[in-house]
Specification:
Elements (H helix, E strand, L loop, with lengths): L34 E6 L11 E14 L9 E4 L6 E6 L14 E5 L13 E2 L4 E2 L8 E3 L5 E4 L8 E7 L2 E8 L15
Antiparallel strand pairs: 1-2, 2-11, 3-4, 4-5, 6-7, 7-8, 8-9, 10-11
The structure holds FE2/S2 (inorganic) cluster.
């Protein structure tokens, strides 16, 4: 399947094949001093389906190390802002957008895309899933760019774009809109 990529104009991040990922059906951006790109995505693992997504790049931030990351044990971190909660997790299976030698290291926002329910502490390593959300039970598949498995939400979880340099793991961007942020702005909804 052919793909068209609009180059990312950023000094912080070079587009790589493994970074083409994720989707928000609302196709909004989480931006703010960020460089924005519209990317025609590659297919998900095992799927021929392609999707469009908007991607926001941010100054990269070290969020962990390969040596310290244990399979199935999520590490919380905030990115790109101090109030945006995410997890970094080694799934143990190859994942869409996965980083690292096994392409199994991913990071996702922890606020449910339905109404912002807290997904903190809900990672299920048996299923590589986040959820169910305590409000309306949505569960998200972390092997497939945070797609909804079941529940009220319709949008995938925002996926944090990762880069590996040596033993260090960096966050370099966000795919999708973090709940509570308006499109194309850093401001929370009124
Ligand atoms: S807020 Fe998570 S399912 Fe409604």
């Amino acid at each position: 399947m052919s793909q068209t990529i609009i180059p990312v104009e950023t000094e912080h991040h070079d587009e790589k094949a493994g970074d083409r990922l994720c989707m928000s059906r609302r196709q909004f951006l989480l931006t703010g001093g960020a460089t924005v790109a519209l990317v025609s995505l590659g297919a998900l693992p095992g799927s021929a389906e392609a999707a469009q997504a908007l991607k926001a790049s941010y100054p990269r931030q070290r969020i962990g190390s390969l040596a310290a990351l244990k399979k199935g044990v999520p590490l919380p971190f905030n990115y790109p802002y101090s109030d945006v909660r995410n997890i970094l997790v080694k799934l143990g299976v190859e994942a869409g957008g996965g980083a690292g030698p096994q392409k199994d290291i991913v990071a996702f926002n922890q606020q449910c895309t339905h109404m912002g329910g807290p997904l903190d502490g809900t990672y299920k390593d048996k299923y590589q899933a986040l959820g169910p959300c305590p409000l309306h039970l949505t569960t998200f598949d972390l092997t497939h760019h945070g797609m909804v498995i079941s529940g009220q939400a319709t949008d995938s979880l925002p996926q944090i774009v990762l880069e590996i340099q040596g033993d260090d793991i960096y966050a370099v961007g966000v795919m999708g809109l973090v709940y509570g942020y308006s499109a194309m702005t850093t401001q929370r909804k009124a």
